[in-house]
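PROTEIN DESIGN WORKSHEET
SECTION A - STRUCTURE
LENGTH: 278
TOKENS:
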């Protein structure tokens, strides 16, 4: 079976709701859904987070990042970290864990490298989206970060199926965009009960039209994706270096340029992207 036929098969299964998640992803998904309950008490939320060591580590790390820790007072316990971040951010991090664990641990080293690069790209996009929403498009930074976290969720699901279809990752991935990205992505987003605002932003990313000046959540996500210094292994950028990408898309934002804003926010982006790495 060729790659195009494999993608069609996976897309058809996904379209029918026949999705396969790893055991670790299922656990993280249950935590994410529990945190989505408005009646969930902070003590319960802290216990849920503590039960998943990777999530607990990221929650504490994010709470100590430059973005969320302006005072410089270090947090070392999960309960205080959850209180500092708030449930929305903690839910976003739980969804990040679902996304990252969706691909599992591939048996082939080259597949492991693809998964690692895709998450590296995701972390950069989420961090950039947070800053761009705050400084450029003036939208909710947490909503933008969440959209960045899940914008490649279909790709992570695709990578999880490589064990069933070993030929899936052979050669270039141009067929992924043509045959499976949107259909598989929509199915996984639906399974994760992702809010429509984030889904619409990801749809805008798939369409690839960036308004100038950027204004919407979709524009925010597109701009973050374009400017990420690590590209997705499932897509090809037209410009290979981050400086070239910055220069090619620079614009005036109020009294500053986009390049100036990104330069001023570099510490925030680095701190947040580092904290998001599972």
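SECTION B - SEQUENCE
RESIDUE ASSIGNMENT:
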């Amino acid at each position: 079976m060729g790659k195009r036929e494999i993608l069609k098969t996976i897309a058809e299964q996904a379209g029918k709701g026949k999705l396969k998640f790893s055991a670790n992803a299922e656990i993280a998904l249950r935590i994410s859904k529990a945190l989505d309950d408005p009646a969930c008490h902070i003590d319960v939320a802290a216990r849920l987070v503590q039960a998943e060591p990777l999530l607990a580590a990221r929650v504490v790390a994010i709470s100590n990042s430059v973005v969320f820790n302006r005072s410089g007072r270090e947090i070392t316990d999960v309960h205080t970290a959850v209180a500092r971040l708030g449930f929305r951010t903690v839910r976003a991090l739980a969804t990040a864990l679902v996304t990252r664990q969706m691909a599992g641990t591939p048996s082939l080293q080259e597949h492991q490298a693809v998964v690692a690069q895709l998450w590296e790209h995701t972390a950069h996009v989420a961090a950039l989206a947070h800053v761009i929403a705050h400084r450029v498009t003036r939208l909710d930074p947490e909503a933008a970060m969440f959209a960045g976290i899940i914008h490649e969720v279909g790709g992570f699901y695709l990578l999880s199926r490589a064990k069933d279809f070993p030929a899936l990752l052979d050669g270039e991935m141009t067929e992924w965009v043509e045959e499976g990205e949107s259909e598989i992505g929509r199915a996984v987003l639906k399974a994760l009960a992702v809010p429509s605002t984030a889904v619409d932003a990801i749809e805008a990313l798939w369409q690839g039209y960036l308004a100038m000046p950027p204004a919407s959540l979709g524009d925010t996500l597109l701009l973050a994706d374009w400017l990420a210094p690590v590209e997705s292994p499932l897509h090809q950028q037209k410009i290979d270096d981050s400086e070239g990408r910055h220069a090619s898309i620079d614009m005036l934002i109020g009294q500053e340029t986009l390049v100036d804003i990104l330069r001023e926010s570099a510490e925030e982006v680095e701190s947040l992207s580092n904290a998001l790495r599972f």
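SECTION C - NOTES
Residues 23-102 form one domain.
The CA atoms of residues 89 and 121 lie 19 Å apart.
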